[in-house]
Design brief:
Low-confidence stretches of chain A: none
Radius of gyration of chain A: 13 Å
Oligomer: heterodimer
Mean pLDDT of chain B: 93
Number of helices of chain A: 0
Number of helices of chain B: 0
Shape of chain A: globular
Distance between the termini of chain B: 38 Å
Number of strands of chain A: 11
Largest sheet of chain A: 7 strands, mixed
Helix content of chain B: under 10%
Largest sheet of chain B: 6 strands, mixed
Low-confidence stretches of chain B: none
Chain lengths: 114, 108
């Protein structure tokens, strides 16, 4: 199993450009999520999905869109990039077995917006 | 925002020393997780604690969940350079909330 994969690993955008960060998992997990990590801020939830066709907003959703057409894929779209979106983005998937969540993270995408 | 405070923010110690890091919240956790993140990689789950007062051990790492389920600690015995990384606690639930982390450096 590859686990959670993310592409690209690095990306530089200019202000106003759009792009899609790709995320895929091969563990048949229903729950997937996107986080951003900034220095001194920890990981903050952007959007999450509890299954194909179902998405919801997290703590910091503005400027991002998601969709979940399959169990495996959960892309994150930046509509019009801003310097404030410079960050490291992590995709995660998890099982839900009562309170014993097992969450797995991808390797991250480091995004710089100039 | 469900604030999780982690302390200390940074910690640099010599190989062989013991250390404890803390995770605190003003509200009760249903369950709490600890992760370790190495530079350039995603966080990796270390443990989940569920019951107040629970203690779990993972080799040289000891995790404790407070009796009131509002705080947790991670104790490392005889730290090694391989323990270097960012340690994150997280409140579980439909949405996860992460602390800001403790950056640990173990000097050989």
């Amino acid at each position: 199993n590859a686990g959670v994969t993310q592409t690209p690993k690095f990306q530089v955008l200019k202000t106003g450009q759009s792009m899609t960060l790709q995320c895929a998992q091969d563990m048949n997990h229903e729950y997937m999520s996107w986080y951003r990590q900034d220095p001194g801020m920890g990981l903050r939830l952007i959007h999450y999905s509890v299954g194909a066709g179902i998405t919801d907003q997290g703590e910091v959703p503005n400027g991002y869109n998601v969709s979940r057409s399959t169990t495996e894929d959960f892309p994150l779209r930046l509509l019009s990039a801003a310097p404030s979106q410079t960050s490291v983005y992590f995709c995660a998937s998890r099982t839900d077995r009562g309170l014993s969540y097992e969450q797995y993270f991808g390797p991250g995408t480091r995004l710089t917006v100039t | 925002t469900q604030l999780l405070e982690q302390s200390p923010q940074f910690l640099s110690i010599q190989e062989g020393e013991n250390l404890t890091v803390y995770c605190n919240s003003s509200s009760v956790f249903s369950s709490l997780q600890w992760y370790r993140q190495e530079p350039g990689e995603g966080p990796v789950l270390l443990v989940t604690v569920v019951t107040g007062g629970e203690v779990k051990k993972l080799k040289r790492l000891t995790f404790q969940f407070g009796d009131a389920r509002k705080d947790s600690s991670l104790h490392i015995t005889a730290a090694q350079p391989g323990d270097t990384g960012l340690y994150l606690c997280a409140r579980t639930g439909n949405q996860f909330y992460f602390g800001t982390g403790t950056s640990l450096t173990v000097i050989p």
